[in-house]
């Protein structure tokens, strides 16, 4: 159904759903684009497939899961979004029928027009399995006898992948590019609520814990320097630069980018400007 935006019961407003493996994945990979949707009055939903109960050097289990859920809800309140966190163990996510049903149910409940998730080739098993769960759910979203107590959607939402740096079996292609320069500070403010991750666990596991500022008023600037660009603009510079007027390109400092998925609804030239009203098309 090329050119048709699915789930028109949303009226003129979109319902956008990021499905990530962990409670901070959406904020890192999609936080700027999410804010741009919110500025236009659209609905943004985050879904974490795990509770994040393994991602810390000194905490774990139920206590860490509760902490990470609290961090996620702080983001939800700060931005004005829906933030779902499933109670699967971090590091143990499996593409089970049960998890597939949960994803189908949430996609239907939020009446998603657009779903963003990880690509299937990724360093983390939870990320790969999240992608597989979304792929397995895509067709079944419209099948009434699957998860029968949650009304089916009449059309599949469009599915896209967020940016990453992995090269095999094929590298990420930036097919839609979003300039998030004007909202980067708010993205960092939201990301900072994931304190256990961006100021504790990720610096520990990646070996730069000693760089984290002790003073709270210094942390946002440090976070912006460390985490502001989930994708390297320079890598895509030759490909992307012709898409922008020079005066626009010179003022772009931070981007998020997305690639079409073969599953679910298709992102096309007919619907891309509706689904990404602030995006630059590169396909």
Give an overview in words.
- This protein has 283 residues and is of the alpha/beta class.
- The chain has one domain: 3-Layer(aba) Sandwich (Rossmann fold).
- Helix content is 39%, strand content 15%.
- It is built from 10 helices and 8 strands.
- The protein has an 8-stranded mixed sheet with strand order 3-2-1-4-5-7-6-8, sandwiched between helices.
- Strand 2, helix 2 and strand 3 form a beta-alpha-beta unit.
- The longest helix has 19 residues.
- It is globular and about 55 Å long.
- The two termini are 19 Å apart.
- The N terminus is likely disordered.
Give the topology, please.
Elements: E1 15-20, H1 25-39, E2 43-48, H2 61-79, E3 82-85, H3 97-110, E4 114-117, H4 125-138, E5 158-162, E6 176-179, H5 184-191, H6 195-205, H7 216-227, H8 233-240, H9 246-249, E7 255-264, H10 272-275, E8 279-281
Parallel strand pairs: 1-2, 1-4, 2-3, 4-5
Antiparallel strand pairs: 5-7, 6-7, 6-8
The residue-averaged pLDDT reads 93
User: Secondary-structure element order, as H and E?
Assistant: EHEHEHEHEEHHHHHEHE
Share in β-strands:
5-15%
Uncertain spans, ≥5 residues at pLDDT below 50?
1-7
> Would you count the extended β strands for me?
8
Q: Total helix count?
A: 10
What strand line-up does the widest sheet have? 3-2-1-4-5-7-6-8
Give a quick precis of the structure.
With about 280 residues, the chain is an alpha/beta fold.
Which keywords apply here?
283 residues, Rossmann fold, 8-stranded mixed beta sheet, disordered N terminus, 10 helices, single chain, alpha/beta
């Amino acid at each position: 159904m090329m050119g048709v935006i699915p789930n028109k019961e949303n009226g003129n407003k979109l319902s956008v759903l990021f499905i990530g493996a962990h409670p901070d994945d959406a904020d890192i990979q999609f936080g700027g684009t999410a804010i741009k949707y919110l500025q236009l009055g659209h609905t943004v939903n985050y879904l974490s497939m795990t509770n994040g109960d393994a991602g810390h050097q000194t905490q774990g289990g139920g206590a860490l899961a509760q902490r990470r859920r609290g961090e996620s809800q702080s983001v939800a309140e700060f931005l004005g979004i829906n933030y779902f966190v499933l109670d699967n163990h971090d590091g143990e996510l499996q593409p089970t029928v049960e998890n597939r049903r949960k994803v189908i149910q949430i996609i239907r409940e939020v009446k998603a027009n657009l779903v963003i998730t990880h690509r299937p080739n990724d360093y983390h098993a939870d990320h790969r399995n999240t992608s597989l769960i979304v792929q397995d759910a895509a067709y079944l979203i419209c099948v009434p006898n699957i998860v029968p107590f949650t009304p089916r959607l009449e059309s599949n939402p469009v599915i896209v992948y967020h940016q990453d740096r992995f090269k095999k079996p094929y590298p990420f292609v930036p097919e839609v590019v979003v300039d998030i320069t004007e909202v980067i500070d708010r993205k960092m403010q939201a990301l900072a609520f994931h304190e256990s991750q961006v100021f504790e666990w990720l610096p520990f596991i990646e070996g730069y814990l000693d760089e984290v500022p002790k003073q709270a008023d210094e942390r946002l600037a440090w976070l912006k320097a460390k985490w502001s660009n989930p994708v390297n603009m320079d890598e895509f510079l030759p490909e992307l630069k012709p898409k922008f007027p020079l005066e626009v390109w010179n003022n772009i400092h931070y981007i998020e980018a997305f690639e079409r998925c073969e599953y679910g609804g298709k992102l096309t030239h007919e619907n891309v400007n509706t689904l990404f009203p602030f995006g630059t098309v590169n396909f």
